[in-house]
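TASK: fixed-backbone design
INPUT:
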């Protein structure tokens, strides 16, 4: 039951992030969007590992890696739209 609750919360997190992007509330490089994707996909990957669901493990690990790469790219790019050195 606990794993299902984690899966539901993480699924809502991913869909909420995507909906925010689609409705123009965030941009794809917004740290809030990337963190929501990273945390939610990592949570789903963790529960998939415990349930031995290889397809979901692969999907969510890759999703988390892409989100993390986006965050690292933001960190490197100090002159991007999300910094305050204007």
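OUTPUT:
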């Amino acid at each position: 039951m606990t794993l299902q609750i984690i899966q539901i919360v993480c699924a809502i997190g991913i869909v909420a992030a995507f909906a925010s992007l689609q409705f123009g509330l965030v941009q794809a490089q917004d740290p809030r969007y990337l963190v929501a994707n990273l945390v939610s996909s990592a949570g789903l990957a963790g529960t998939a590992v415990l349930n031995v669901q290889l397809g979901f493990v692969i999907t969510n690990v890759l999703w988390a890696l892409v989100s993390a790469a986006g965050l690292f790219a933001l960190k490197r790019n100090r002159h991007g739209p999300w910094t305050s050195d204007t």
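COMMENT: The chain has a mean pLDDT of 89.
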